[in-house]
Amino acid sequence: MKNVRIKDLEFKLCYTSDDIQSDIDVLSSKLNHDFKDTKTPILFLSILNGAFMFTADLMKRIQFPCEISFIRLASYEGTSSTGTIREIIGLTDNIEGRTVIILEDIVDTGLTLQKLYEGLTKKNPTQLLIATLLFKPDAYKGSIKVDYIGKSIPNDFIVGYGLDYDGLGRNLPNIYTIVE
Ligand code: 5GP
User: How many whole angstroms from 180 Cα to the centroid of ligand 1?
Assistant: First the structure.
């Protein structure tokens, strides 16, 4: 499927499922290397809805003791970041004294991440790290270091593999970019 139409917009294929899986191979190898000696379970904190596919594919490759929890936030309406963050599902785990790795589908402006990072830091984790499948360096306005990046991509709106356009397109196994 080279092009897809979602509502009023046309999208063209930019990352195949195979591309995505090999980026996740590399990312998970780095994590497995960095946490190979860990004895205490690491807490992965996956950001719904977008990160659900990435989370599932990544978790299958993790070889150190870990737990997974989900939190839901939103900062996007339509095709541009609004910068307003709504927390819909809160964190129930006690993260004090723990190593937490945030799992994001995509870091764009970084505003979502910034808010989340500040909120989680107040709960005193020992270490707070970020892993994202996709990163838009030209859009990023944040100061936080993004520790693990699957792929850096241009500053264009994309859909598929968990990412939506007005709720649609999350089911696509490939990633598509907007046709201007
Ligand atoms: P940020 O706060 O970094 O600008 O945006 C973070 C959130 O906006 C992501 O977790 C994702 O849900 C959404 N987002 C950012 N860029 C894109 C994009 O290109 N396509 C889609 N579908 N969502 C995006």
Answer: 18
Architecture (CATH level 2) of domain 17-70+94-152: 3-Layer(aba) Sandwich (3.40)
CA distance 134 to 142: 15
Within the chain, where are the H helices? 17-34, 52-59, 111-121
Ranges assigned E (strand) in 3-126: 3-6, 9-15, 42-48, 66-77, 80-89, 99-107
AA letter at 124: N
Of 61, 66, 136, 64, whose CA–CA distance to 104 is shortest?
A: 136
4 contact partners, CB below 8 Å, separation of at least 6: 10, 11, 159, 160, 169, 172, 176
- The 10s digit of each residue's pLDDT in 33-53 is 999 999 999 999 999 999 999
Domain chopping of the chain, boundaries: 17-70+94-152
Q: Say if strands 148-152 and 127-135 run parallel, antiparallel, or are unpaired.
A: parallel
pTM listed for this prediction: 0.93
| Dist CA 174 CA 171 (whole Å) | 9
Cα(38) to ligand 1 centroid in Å equals 31
